[in-house]
Amino acid sequence: MSPALKQLHEQALALDAADVLAPLRARFALPTASDGRTLTYLCGHSLGLMPLDARRLLNEELDDWSALGVDGHHRARRPWIEYAELLQDGLAQLAGCQREEVVAMNSLTVNLHLMMSSFYRPQGRRRLIVIESGAFSSDRHAVASQLAWHGLSAADSLIEIAPGTDADLIGKQSLLQLLQQRGGEVALVLWPGVQYRTGQAFDLAAIAAAAQAAGACCGFDLAHAMGNLPLALHDSGADFAVWCGYKYLNGGPGALAGAFVHARHAHSDLPRLAGWWGHDPATRFAMSPDFVAAPGAAGWQISNPPILSATPLLASLPLFSAAGSAALQAKTRSLGQLLLDGLATHCAQTLQVITPAARGCQLSLRVRAGREAGRAVFAALTAMGVIADWREPDIIRVAPVPLYNTHADVARLITALTQALPA
Fold first, then answer.
1. Which of 20, 92, 158, 208 is deepest in the core (most CB within 10 A)?
2. pLDDT reported for residue 321
3. What is the pTM of this model?
4. Half-sphere exposure at residue 73, Cβ-oriented, CA atoms within 13 angstroms
5. Number of domains in the chain
């Protein structure tokens, strides 16, 4: 190991020794190699690690199901009837909103469809949906199919804002300029909190304000922002937001997702795709043919929550509260800065950091030598026990997560990169 790398590892150990969040790492299951070595896991932006309490809580639900059968809806230690409500406080804290503005339900894209059924209402010339170019494919599929549902096409009713002079990043001004010029035609702005490929974070309040000033609705896909960045959805004024539960929220593969609906819509008569669990709880079991929406985001529920998919979130969300937003953000900055410094010192000739200063945990690294070299680097990292992910054609994404990653993980990544990258 070179003197510079040795110094990097010593700096990492010193930072970890002073880390107030260090004890939280022991609350997660850390993946291991076949020989028992702990892997350097930097893929929390794709699938968060398992909170150890998830196994205990899931076993409790299985025990209650086994012992109580249908009576578990009322007699389980956490009665299943009110299960989604158990997640509201934790989600509201992370979303920066009122308890009644959030609901845990479904999956991200299902929630996106449910929100667009209410908030995309094309009328006359106001029919355009605005998204970012290169949006996650599921979002674009959902938007295109919503347009088709209304008898419209993506070719004439979808605007995709591409990066400007920078080949990777989208300037906020491009969106604001479009809204100033064509705002009277825009029905919905659907924007990410963090762009999944580049890790670029956006000013959600400014985007929501500009959309609404133009007379459009505004919604956010927070798949890569929820649990990653501090959010203030209520104050942002956004009409709605959706997210998944398996990335930074550590809810497990296919975890229950969530949605935000602003309080101003809590008692609205907006059209929606309704289901019985969105009915007012006071009369839900009267089984009336007439739908009476529950107030708040809960009124967009379709079915009762899947208990076994929701339970791991009960293990994860309290860890965010225990850590505190300020400490989490401070550690995110510390991990990110150590990574940036290490890349600048050891990898500047071979890697380009495409993630801007406005970011959360994720850094996206372009392999300058191109796709084939990049694939070889990624394979080498995997062989050395570093778990990241690959995005075509030449991007390696890594995310040191403050709940369970360490500065030593970052130092190990830098060391592995120096060995894997072409000279």
1. 208
2. 97
3. 0.96
4. 6
5. 2
